[in-house]
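Appendix B. Raw example, untouched.
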Amino acid sequence: MTELRIDNKWPQIFKQFDILNRSYVAIGFFSSSEDSKLLTIVRANEYGAPHIQPKNGEWLTIPTKDTPMGADGGPMPAREIPGLFRPKGKNVLAVPNGNKFKIVYILVKEVTIPPRPFIRTAKIQNEKKYQRMVMNGIGQIIDGSMTAKELLTILGETAKNDIRRQMIAWSDPANAPATIDRKGTNNPLVDKGILTRNVECRILEGWHE
């Protein structure tokens, strides 16, 4: 006698859909502190920061190409640079360099960072692609060739790389001349790679607007 066996995959399919309903992908920059240096830089670039003035003291310090790097990969704070002084009559901070001096910071009263919405732009430009990925992924979940976690991971990694590409491609508005001189390039969102390295994607649980 021939035995007919029906493989009911629907319980597993519903389980994967339940995981999708309880999970979401977060892509961006994460920190345990809302006041972290990384998030401050991200917010200033994404939304702009007009009329930045010093909180303490009289001057803002703008790094130059000769500013040494600190432990965090960014410009070393002025207070940590040995031998730093302000030449008479000049709005700069410098260190001795033989009989001359080397400028490591430019002093200004105020700066404005124009908005460079690289995160929102990447989302808008790729939104339809993400929708197609989700629809294709749902089809693959139904036929058993993909899990919910795999779909979310692929979606997150794709969006993360799209944000990185947007950062690298961004050129307008350009950097200030002093910044171009320091970085050696007019790419406003790429310096030492701190931002590009810190874009992350995380699969989280719970409803999220």
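End of appendix B.
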